[in-house]
User: Which sequence fits this backbone?
């Protein structure tokens, strides 16, 4: 019995892990682009991006999942996601990446705006280009300043992946809950907590390591 | 022909005109000290010369070549501005070192970005890197910080940081090095080492514009004094003239005030 449960939970966790990784891979860079958009000097873009961030951060991720998955079919009469698992996964990735990119973008923006103007000007008078100043002077300092808030978001993401089941993506909580119906036992559901704890423990250690690595300088 | 010719520079922020027609010439090897009370536009002038601000009026000419004319303000590309500003270096009041890099890297970063551009051969790159690094080390020697090459800015005193900032500016080989109150952010006991470093640059023949409140330094090191008040050059002349026999009433009043 224990082995059956572990196999099922492992399978569920694999999906959880997949959502986690794909979301980070997409949302980390997309968040930077959104951050630049929200700081743009071109007003229409800035306000479009700010509205997007407001809507995405102001509504539940669960609602966004439902709208993104069912919306196209119900509103336009054309289900872009198809009928198979592939479509469900794609919808989950889309919703998660969009949602997390918006949260990340605000963290990035705070980090970027906290870098003193003198750092940019020092780069400028030394003849550096804008991209050089951003990537060689500013970015590392931003990374250091945002590690703590980012680690919070990333740990929240691990737990948010459980929302994917609302559109029938088989992640770990669903895997655990299945045993209530099939075998009348509830401990597998509780046992999923161990997976979350271990994974988040690992992430905490990882972020602690990054923070320590970046501690070689102050400022 | 003068090394630098500044003509009739004006600059406003909103409704307030901060620079109201500044003009002066500068010869190679000359050291000018700019003095004046706070708010008179000294920083703005240096920022205009270094293209951190675009003047609304006037021209800047280096070695007979006009590198800025306010009439063509809108026409300059980022690349042109970058090239032109390399005629100048600027040392800030607040140092603005890059905290994540050690002292050596602070100095070599910009020269590497510039001189490695377009170089593809690995051996060639290595050679250029070595060359830049050697130049940086000798600049560190000039400012008396050879042993700090591997330290990080946060490990240095303010005076040391400012001397690194001077070496960093020199690494780009500017024709004219500008200082904006280089000692104002320092504890009094640390100003001496920075002023000495600047003074030693004079003996090497560097052309420099130094905005300063250190009157003794201005009097002893500068070849010429520019006294600014309310966005104009109120008086200019040798230290002798300006300090001992100021012509303008305003200058006299400013100089008789106790040091700020
Ligand atoms: N970016 C700016 N926006 C608006 N006003 C400015 C700006 N920079 C400087 N000023 C104003 O210009 C005047 C001159 O400033 P500044 O050049 O810094 O003088 P100084 O360096 O001689 O003390 C001050 O009144 C200051 O408030
Ligand atoms: Mg000033």
Assistant:
């Amino acid at each position: 019995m224990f082995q059956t449960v572990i196999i099922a939970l492992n399978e569920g966790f694999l999906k959880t892990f997949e959502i986690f990784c794909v979301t980070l891979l997409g949302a980390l860079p997309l968040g930077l682009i959104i951050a630049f958009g929200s700081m743009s000097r071109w007003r229409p873009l800035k306000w479009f991006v700010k509205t997007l961030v407001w809507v995405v951060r102001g509504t539940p991720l669960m609602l966004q999942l439902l709208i993104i998955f069912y919306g196209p079919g119900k509103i336009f009469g054309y289900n872009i996601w198809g009928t198979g698992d592939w479509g469900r996964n794609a919808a989950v990735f889309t919703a998660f990446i969009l949602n997390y990119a918006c949260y990340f973008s605000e963290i990035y923006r705070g980090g970027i705006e906290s870098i003193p103007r003198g750092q940019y000007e020092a780069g400028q008078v030394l003849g550096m280009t804008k991209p050089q100043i951003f990537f060689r002077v500013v970015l590392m300092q931003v990374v250091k300043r945002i590690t703590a808030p980012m680690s919070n978001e990333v740990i929240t993401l691990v737990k948010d992946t459980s929302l994917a089941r609302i559109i029938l993506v088989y992640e770990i909580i669903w895997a655990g809950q299945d045993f209530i119906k099939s075998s009348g036992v509830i401990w597998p559901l509780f046992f999923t907590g161990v997976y979350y704890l271990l994974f988040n423990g690992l992430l905490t250690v990882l972020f602690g390591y990054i923070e320590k690595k970046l501690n070689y300088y102050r400022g | 022909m003068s090394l630098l010719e500044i003509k009739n520079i004006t600059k406003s922020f909103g409704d307030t005109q901060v620079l109201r027609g500044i003009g002066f010439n500068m010869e190679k090897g000359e050291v000018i000290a700019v003095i004046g009370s706070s708010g008179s536009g000294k920083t703005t002038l240096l920022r205009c010369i270094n293209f951190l601000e675009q003047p609304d009026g006037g021209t800047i000419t280096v070695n007979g070549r006009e590198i800025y004319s306010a009439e063509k303000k809108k026409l300059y590309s980022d690349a042109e501005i970058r090239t032109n500003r390399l005629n100048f270096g600027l040392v800030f009041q607040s140092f603005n070192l890059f905290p994540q890099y050690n002292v050596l890297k602070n100095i070599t970063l910009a020269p590497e970005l510039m001189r490695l551009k377009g170089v593809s051969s690995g051996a060639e790159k290595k050679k250029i890197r070595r060359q830049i690094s050697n130049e940086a080390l000798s600049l560190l020697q000039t400012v008396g910080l050879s042993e700090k090459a591997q330290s990080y800015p946060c490990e240095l005193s303010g005076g040391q940081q400012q001397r690194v900032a001077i070496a960093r500016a020199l690494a780009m080989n500017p024709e004219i090095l500008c200082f904006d109150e280089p000692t104002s952010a320092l504890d009094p006991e640390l100003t001496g080492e920075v002023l000495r470093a600047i003074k030693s640059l004079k003996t090497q023949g560097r052309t420099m514009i130094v905005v300063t409140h250190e009157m003794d330094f201005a009097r002893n090191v500068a070849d010429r004094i520019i006294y600014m008040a309310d966005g104009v050059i109120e008086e200019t002349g040798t230290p002798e003239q300006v300090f001992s026999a100021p012509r303008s009433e305003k200058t006299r009043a400013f100089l008789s005030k106790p040091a700020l």
Q: What stands out?
A: DSSP finds eight helices and no strands in chain A. Residues 35 and 108 of chain A are 6 Å apart (CA to CA). The pocket of adenosine-5'-diphosphate (ligand 1) is lined by residues B 13, 18, 36, 38-44 (CB under 6 Å).
